[in-house]
Amino acid sequence: GENVEQHPSTLSVQEGDSAVIKCTYSDSASNYFPWYKQELGKRPQLIIDIRSNVGEKKDQRIAVTLNKTAKHFSLHITETQPEDSAVYFCAASIGSNKIIFGKGTRLHILP
Amino acid sequence: DSGVTQTPKHLITATGQRVTLRCSPRSGDLSVYWYQQSLDQGLQFLIQYYNGEERAKGNILERFSAQQFPDLHSELNLSSLELGDSALYFCASSGIAGGRSTDTQYFGPGTRLTVL
Fold first, then answer.
1. Within 10 A of B81 (CB to CB), how many other CB atoms are there?
2. Contacts of B45 in chain A (CB under 8 A)
3. B103 at the A interface (CB within 8 A)?
4. In this predicted structure, what is the pLDDT of residue B102?
5. Which residues of A make CB contacts under 8 Å with B?
6. Closest CA–CA distance from residue A96 to any residue of chain B (Å)
7. Does any CB of chain A come closer than 8 Å to the CB of residue B52?
8. Alpha-carbon distance values, A34 to A15, A48, B30, B36 (Å)
């Protein structure tokens, strides 16, 4: 079945620096790749998503890149701020069916 | 606020008991998903319903069951509870955004289950 690997599990970056989180997926039929941010004790919230017909998508300080050949996608956060501290989950799915999540990356923004 | 509601917010019960968690999807969404999140763990997909029918199954234990009703709300039933079932249970929905079908899942606030 589909498997999503996410790295690193923990990431600490200095405020103002960039953070990169990487994911790989196993099912080549996957065509939808969302990223969720989860603050402590709260619900996961969608921050950006990308579909398989696009290689890159950007929304202000957040960007996602997708390499379908290599079956990996990455989240890039630039000019990190304290409020970026959270757990980030990548996911892969075929349409709206059975999204499989990575295990999460705990991002710490250091002052 | 995602538009997905879950009740109760917190639930404390004893081993061996049975509980029911409830989820109301966003207005118009036909798909409902259930996830389990244990302490410091990722999101484990349990089950998906679409318009009242089971669409996909994940790592759901036989002690757990779910259903989606004609009004599209869903219930997750957990029975013969064990200490290890203590977790956050999230419901998510997808289906419609601005009148168009979407794959995006919107999560509810979760139900924190504590089994003593």
1. 20
2. 98-101
3. yes
4. 66
5. 32, 34, 36, 42-46, 49, 89, 93, 95-104
6. 4
7. no
8. 25, 6, 19, 18
Strands A105-110 and A10-14: parallel
Mean pLDDT (chain A) is 92
User: What count of CB pairs under 8 Å joins A to B?
Assistant: 53
Q: What is the pLDDT of residues B5-57, one digit of tens each?
A: 999 999 999 999 999 999 999 988 989 999 999 876 788 889 999 999 998 88
Q: Does B110 touch chain A (CB under 8 A)?
A: yes
Chain B nearest C-alpha distance from A49 (Å) = 8
Q: pLDDT tier at B59 (50, 70, 90 boundaries)? A: confident
pLDDT at A100: 87
**Chain A residues whose beta carbon lies within 8 Å of the beta carbon of residue B95:** 96
Single out the residue of B51, B53, B29 nearest to residue B108, CA to CA.
Answer: B29
A82: closest CA among A49, A111, A62? Answer: A111
Return the percentage of chain B with pLDDT > 70, whole number. 93
Contact assessment for residue A95 and residue A30, using Cβ atoms and an 8 Å cutoff: no
CA distance A110 to A92: 30
Using an 8 Å CB-CB cutoff, list chain B residues near A104. Answer: 42-43
Tokens of B9: 């917010």
- Whether B108 and B9 have beta carbons less than 8 Å apart is answered as no
